[in-house]
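Q: I'm writing a short explainer about PDEase domain-containing protein for a general audience and would like to include a description of its predicted shape. Could you first generate the structure from this sequence?
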Amino acid sequence: MAALAAGDLMAFLSSGSLVWKPMRAHLHCAIITNPLDNSCRYEQHISEEVRQCLRLSSFDSMLWSDEEILLLLQFMFTDLGLIESIPLDMTVLRNFLFQVYKNYNEVPFHNFRHCFCVAQMVSVFKQ
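A: Of course. Here's the predicted structure. Afterward I'll give you a sentence or two in plain language.
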């Protein structure tokens, strides 16, 4: 395989190949609107079984949609008592989590799902 010239490499990387994709497009974000806007009702739908599993290192994030991951992150912040200790307004937290989600690059590994996995594991260690 011939070596790529610098210009060819940049063209390849910016082409939206499997190696790199830009931040989530507005179209994608329009489909996943901020599910945390009305999350008071969503928190009630996180069962006690899911809450307990979320506290385990064996939690499998691949079973959850992006919308559910956002809600689970909100629950983790609440469960750790960060809302009261900072203090942090729930609306600010919801908007922050959604902006983090929306602005992550879609890459194979260091993506939003990886962010969730790290946050979830830190919450396991913190308890």
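A: For your explainer, you could say: Residues 22-32 have pLDDT under 50 and may be disordered.
Q: Perfect, that's easy to follow.
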